[in-house]
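Researcher: I've got a protein sequence and the SMILES for S-adenosylmethionine. Could you write out the 3D structure of the bound complex as C-alpha cells? I'd like something to compare against our soaking experiments later this week.
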Amino acid sequence: MSKSSLSPLSSKCRDIQYLNEISYSYWKAQVLFVAVEMDLFTLLEGKGKSCKAISKRLGTNLRATEMILNALISLGLLSKVKGVYKNTAISNRYLVKGNSLYQGDRIHHFHNLWDNWSGLGVAIKTGKPTAYDNAEEEVDERKLNEFIKAMHNIGIIQAEEVCKRLDLKNCHKLLDLGGGQGTYAVRFVKGNPKMTAVVFDLPDVIKITKRYIRKSGLKEGVMVQAGDCLKDGLGKELYDIVFVSNLLHIYKPVENQRILKKCWDSLKKKGIVVIQEFILNSSKTRPLFGTLFSLNMLIGTSGGSSYTERDMKGWLKKIGFKNLKKINLSLDSGLIVGYK
Ligand SMILES: C[S@@+](CC[C@H](N)C(=O)[O-])C[C@H]1O[C@@H](n2cnc3c(N)ncnc32)[C@H](O)[C@@H]1O
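Model: Sure. Here is the predicted complex with S-adenosylmethionine in place.
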C-alpha cells in the first residue's frame, strides 16, 4: 500500500481518536476517583497485592475489581507482575495517604465538582451559575473541609516554587489574603524566620486555618484574622507584602479592584502585592486548564472567571502599583507582582 493512500486515513483516525479521547475522558477520571476514594494506592504501598487479596480487603466484587485494576494499569497508575498489583512511581509518590505530596484530596475535590459540571449546558444558556455557593448561606462543613484539604494538596506543591521565585529578604510582615488553610503563610514564615504572617479569611474557614497552622509545627509567626475582604478593611500600612492566591478568580473585575485597593491601603510604602492565578493568554484561549477553570467559575460563582495578565495588571495600574511583572510558574498558575 502506498504512503499517500495511508495518510488521509491515518489523519482521519487521529482526528476521531482525538474526539473520542475528549468524550471519554470522564471515564478515566471516574476510575481515578473511585481508586482514590477506596484508598487503593495506600493499600498497595510496598509489596503490592493480588486481585483476590485486594477485593477481600476492600469488600469489592472480584470480577469488577480486576477490571478497574486493569484500567489503572492502562492509565500508568499500577503495574502487574505474576498476578501481583503494585503502585507505579507516580501513584506511590502522590496517591499514598500520609505522603507529604499527597494529591488524593485534590482529586476528590474534582469529583465533588462533578454534579456542578452537569449544569454547564444550562449555565451557558443563561450565563448564570448553576451551583452557586452563597457565602451568606449556612456552610456545609464537610464540603468546606474537603475543599480546604484540596487547597492544601495544591498549596504544598505550589508554595515551594512561589517561595523560590520571590525575593522576600526585606519582607517582615506578610498578609495572606484569602489564605485559606494557610499553607503559603506557613511556608513563607518557615523560609524567612524574621517574617510574621497574618492569614485573612472568612470566619468559617479561619476555624480550619487554626488547625492547619497548629499541625504545621510552627509555634509562632502565623496569626489569623477572620473577615470578609469585600466588606472589611485590611488595615493601614501594616504589611511589606500582600499575597493574594486564587482569590480573584471568584470575583468580578469591579470587586477585584476593590479588593486590590484594600491591599494597597494595607501595604507600607514600597510594599509588594503578589497575585497568584491561573493566568489566561491575551486572547483568553490558552492554557487549557485556565479556559476550563473559567467555566468552573461560571458554574460556581456569580461573576468569577480566569483572568489575563492584562486584566490584572490593568487593575493594579489603576490603583497606582508600579513595576508590574509576570512570573511564570511550572504548573498551571503564574504570579503578577506590583510595587506600591
Ligand atoms: C480558592 S481558595 C484559595 C486558598 C489559598 N489562598 C490558596 O491559594 O491555597 C480561596 C480562598 O479565599 C477565601 N475567600 C473567598 N472570598 C473571601 C472574602 N470575601 N473574604 C475573605 N476570604 C475570602 C475562601 O474562603 C478561600 O479560603
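Model: The chain has two domains: 3-95, 114-339. The two ends are 68 Å apart (CA to CA).
Researcher: Great, I'll pass this along to the crystallography team.
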